Amino acid sequence: MQVVECFEIQTWDGGDRHNFKCYVATETEAKRWVNKNKHDIYVPRLMFVFDTLEEAEENELAAVRKRVIERLSPLERKAMGV
Q1: pTM of the model
Q2: Parent domain of 72
């Protein structure tokens, strides 16, 4: 798995929304875009790139386990051995 930090450029539609335009690798490039297009914005993003579908499924299961464990009370965690 690779974790890629990038910046999503969003263009203003003239109303109340911003729409996806592209991704850039650095914040410097994102700022350059926004400086040229004053109503556009950029949003930092983390992208997870998996080598296989199995790896993606394992990551999803791990996230579910983590959320379930966070919901347990301290007594329930002790009973489960986590």
Answers
A1: 0.69
A2: 51-82
